[in-house]
Please model this.
Amino acid sequence: MNTTKHTISILVNNQPGVLQRVASLFGRRGYNIESITVGKSEEEGLSRMIIVTNGDHHKLEQISKQLYKLIDVIKVIDISANPMVERELALIKVNAEPSIRPEIIGVVETFRATIVDISPKSIMVQVVGDSEKVKAMVELLKPYGVIQITRTGVAAMIRGV
Amino acid sequence: MSTQTLKATNKELYAKLMQPDVITGSEILLRSLLLEGVDCVFGYPGGAVLYIYDAIHGNPDFNHLLTRHEQGAIHAADGYARSTGKVGVCIATSGPGATNLVTGIATAYMDSVPLVIITGNVMSTAIGTDAFQEADITGITMPITKHSYLVRDVKDLSKIVHEAFHIASTGRKGPVLIDIPKDVSALKTKFTYDSKISIRGYNPTVLPNKLQIERLLKAIDEAKKPVILAGGGVVYAGAQNELLKFVTKTNIPTITTLLGIGGFPSSNDLWLGMPGMHGTYTANKAIQNCDLLIGIGARFDDRVTMKVEGFAPNAKIAHIDVDPAEVGKVVETAIPCVGDVKKVLELANKKAKPAQSEAWIEELQKMKKEFPLKYEDGDNHLKPQYVIEMIHETTKGEAIVTTDVGQHQMWAAQYYRFNHSRSWITSGGLGTMGFGFPAAIGAQLGNQDRLVVSINGDGGMQMCAQELAICAINNIPVKIVVINNQVLGMVRQWQEIIYDNRYSHIDLSGSPDFVKLAEAYGVKGLRATNKEEAQKAWQEAMDTPGPVLIDFIVEKHENVYPMVKQGSTIDEMLMGDS
Ligand SMILES: Cc1ncc(C[n+]2csc(CCOP(=O)(O)OP(=O)(O)O)c2C)c(N)n1
Ligand SMILES: [Mg+2]
Model:
């Protein structure tokens, strides 16, 4: 069985406790949550969660079926089974004495990331992209001394109609 | 559905309940329950449900039974639900009242029993402040309920109750909890009731995919050694007649799981008994040697499959179940039939033809004769199996039997032979000690004209013995059997066989005198220590109109056989000495 990464989209009623229901289902049944994002959807009263998880085909099928058993879950789609767009945003605060700044800015620009804050000893970099890109940006900034990272988790959508 | 029934059977009450009066949340709750056709509620009061109990006090149409422990209330509601097919209802207060229900909720959830559980909570404004007797019961029970509600607005209450009954009693059934803050139960609003249901995220599959039924019938046509594994889903779907017809048409030998007992008549020649850890020799061998295994409303629990890797090694597996998540969960399934078991069988029966199974049946019939269930009887000891057989014979297999959990449960499953659905009530999935006796009380209230026998161990009997009080006070004529082996028998058996006779904390000597205990509560108590006394005491119990407890002092060292040890496949059975 080959375990792979999956990005699933879950359309849920925007009810108190719905995040707890979904998260507790994953916890209780031993499914992994790599990242989770929740926000309002295009429809009033419904939210969309994007969960990145991993598992083989059997596990993915179980995750989907078990999610459907929750009354507040309306639709589950394995987005990663389709051509998709996947984006994540990260803010990375890096040590940056004035002397080293030009070098860092060079790295940031080649990544099409942006600098969103500058202080005497550090700068804050914002990077948007798929998880691989965010990971690569972090790796490149590490040698300068990363002070803090915060990531949004993945938002994703199937391409086309 | 129930509303319709009430409308038809009791027009006057229906009209009274439907009045658009301005009433409290508590009164709305009671009206809504009555509109669902609820005729009996089990509960226990406390601070957070005082408005509800006040409304009960003023409501002559509402029937409530006060138990002596919330656990007794929920197991009674469970026994009521399992034996009648209706939704069981119980009420408890916030905090400790609600947490006392947890074992019962998990028990019902594991066995797919439809319950609606009402709990009070602290005032909405106090929720989250660690107020007196506050517990986050919706949070605590999330993994053990089918769904739950925390009522925030009294205007939502009647709709929530209606939805809760719908969710509990459709699809794969299960417990639904409604948590009502105290202020919500006191606030007033105009009563409205909408019988329509629309829950966007809830549409259980009822009708199966026709193609899969065709595939099932084709597989039966091709099979030489087919077997049916029928579970609790057959009973819960009310599909016992359809199953019998299916088996009669296809001529396929049939096994019933612990929860499936009664879903197929044990008097039928094609019945092979129970599978799994304490299953019959023939049932286990049949599964291991079959070429087609048709699971019907059974979820391939680990006590049935034992070592999954070696389970039914030669079989193509077909699975009929209302819960799609069960199909393919444990065993790889070639033919998935998701739908209401009754509907699936109805459709299959239209075209079902006999399988080519004569040689296979002959082989299994021979096996049944050669390896029947057996025990060594004698005149010096009273054997637990003998007591069960005696109860079976004298009640002609017509009683409703509830059990607790342990050796006595397995002997009851093996030696009481059922021919009717909803007559065998036992905690299978959770294996809850303390369940059997209160469940019998619920079963008796739901089946006033039937004999209800509750078979308990001397350990489990002490886990809900307090409910003897309500049998006495309300003259609930349950016959309470204690299979008294002076030990936690099932644990003793494992310690003997798996832990080399290292007996750790299983001795129950010093238990109360059960006869005196019963009598202290006002229930008649009898004792038997040998066969002759057993027959006499049992006859006396049957002849006594009210509740009776019979303490059968049985052989302590008896083991349940066959037994499959954990880690073995189901054909690796220990058969005992006899
Ligand atoms: C609430 C609970 N606690 C513990 C167990 C574990 N357990 C299973 S069977 C058993 C022994 C039961 O003893 P008894 O009621 O005397 O029945 P017997 O096996 O002797 O027939 C125990 C402790 C359980 N099933 N439920
Ligand atoms: Mg015992």
Notes: Residues 148 and 177 of chain B are 5 Å apart (CA to CA). Residues B 406, 457-459, 485, 487-489 surround magnesium ion (ligand 2) (CB under 6 Å). Chain B has three domains: 18-190, 210-370, 384-560.
